[in-house]
Amino acid sequence: MLHKYSVVSDIPDDLLANYLKQPEIAVDTELQGLKLNRDQVCLVQLCDRNQQVCLVRPNPPEAPPNLKKLLTAPNTVKVFHYALSDVAFLKVSLGIDVAPFRCTKVMSKLVRTYTEGHSLKSLVQEIVGVELDKTSQTTNWGKGDLSADQLRYAANDVIHLLEVYDGLKEMIKERGELASGLKLDDLNIQCQAMLPTLMNLLISGYGDQDNGWETSVFDH
């Protein structure tokens, strides 16, 4: 039987208390489009290791208080896939400075050098053994009533994300030392630490490539 999901305007207090006890929480967003300062966050999906899903529909530019409390909680790592986009939109659209956070796409690109497939669908298929249905990916997330298919799609993007995160962490530890003398685990930590600076460059107007999602600031 398919699970039925509903949308709330903010994380319920009891669920927030549970989320704040977790070392990591999976997070994703659905957007009107991919243009910063034009498009808004339409939905924020959250999930813990017990697969307790919460789908929050904010009203930009106001940030739901409990959502903001969770996304800025210092003791809970927020895990995203392609964090750069999600974190940038959460800051520009809702004024939330997400921290601390990690990106599974960065981890995948560092350790899964045997493939060019770094989408969430590819990762869930390989690590979890589940094939995600992506048919609702490019639908209208700004419409008044989201369909059951849209809500299932949104939930599926966070349900398996922490399993992917754990799997990638193990793969990174197994890789060990690189030719540079650095361990891949240490290099991953350094790459994750660079993401807030890169995000600030992009939202400050220095994204001059790939429709604003890459910058030439560090080019020769």
Determine the oligomeric state from the structure: single chain
Tell how many strands the DSSP assignment holds.
6
| First-last Cα distance | 56 Å
Q: How many domains, in number, for the residues?
A: 1
Annotated CATH architecture: 2-Layer Sandwich
Return the CATH class. Alpha Beta
Our estimate of the beta-strand percent is 5-15%
Biggest sheet character:
6 strands, mixed
Could you spell the SSE succession in H and E letters? EHEEEHEHEHHHHH
Structural class: alpha/beta
Mean pLDDT, to the nearest integer, reads 95
What does this structure look like?
With 220 residues, the protein is α/β, with parallel strands linked by helices. The protein has one domain: Nucleotidyltransferase, domain 5 (2-Layer Sandwich). It has eight helices and six strands, in the order βαβββαβαβααααα. A six-stranded mixed beta sheet has the order 1-4-3-2-5-6. α3 links the parallel β5 and β6. The longest helix is centred in the last third of the chain and has 23 residues. It is globular and about 50 Å long. The mean pLDDT is 95.
Give a quick rundown of the structure:
The protein is 42% helix and 13% strand. With 220 residues, it is an alpha/beta fold.
Keyword list:
220 residues; alpha/beta; 6-stranded mixed β-sheet
What's the layout of helices and strands?
Layout: E1 7-8, H1 13-19, E2 24-31, E3 41-47, E4 53-56, H2 65-71, E5 77-80, H3 83-94, E6 101-103, H4 104-111, H5 120-128, H6 148-159, H7 161-175, H8 184-206
Parallel strand pairs: 1-4, 2-5, 5-6
Antiparallel strand pairs: 2-3, 3-4
Helix pairs in contact: 3-8, 4-7, 4-8, 5-7
